[in-house]
Design a protein that fits this description.
There is one protein chain. The chain is mainly α. It has one domain. It has 4 helices and 4 strands, in the order H-H-E-E-E-E-H-H. It has a two-stranded antiparallel ribbon with strand order 1-2. Strands 3-4 form a two-stranded antiparallel sheet. The longest helix is centred in the C-terminal third of the chain and has 30 residues. It is globular.
Length: about 130
């Protein structure tokens, strides 16, 4: 394989990666309009076979036991985007109430979680694309 062939293959690979990233972004854009914010929160939170870890206390709970928290409270302008939702245990969520004390830390952690999930999704789509060639 010559230089040009490897260049074209690399270009096509980069194009597929960009297309797959766009697919992920379109998927999330579609789900931003979901009215069921609880479903959205759980769909965008990692679980260990149905067990969820509270980001505050670190304890593990089943889905039915968990609450969905708005990182920026709705009373202070928070929305239902996946970036503003986190799954918390009832005790931590009720004790937080509409406090903004840990908002910045929670938002940074949440963005990192979602970025990692998006990277995993992208790697999965890229692996499927490679297998189809």
């Amino acid at each position: 394989m010559g230089f040009f062939d490897s260049f074209v293959e690399g270009f096509n690979s980069a194009k597929k990666t960009r297309e797959n990233r766009e697919i992920i972004e379109m998927y999330h854009d579609l789900h931003d309009y979901d009215t069921d914010y609880r479903k959205k929160a759980f769909d965008n939170t990692d679980s260990n076979n149905g067990w969820y870890t509270c980001p505050r206390c670190g304890k593990k709970f089943r889905k039915k036991q968990m609450h969905v928290d708005h990182i920026v409270p709705q009373s202070k302008g928070g929305d239902n985007s996946r970036y503003n939702l986190q799954v918390m245990c009832p005790h931590c969520n009720c004790s937080k109430r509409d406090s903004m004390a840990d908002t910045e830390r929670d938002l940074v952690r949440r963005r990192q979680e979602l970025k990692r999930q998006d990277e995993e999704d992208l790697e999965f789509l890229n692996s499927i694309s490679r297998k189809r060639r």
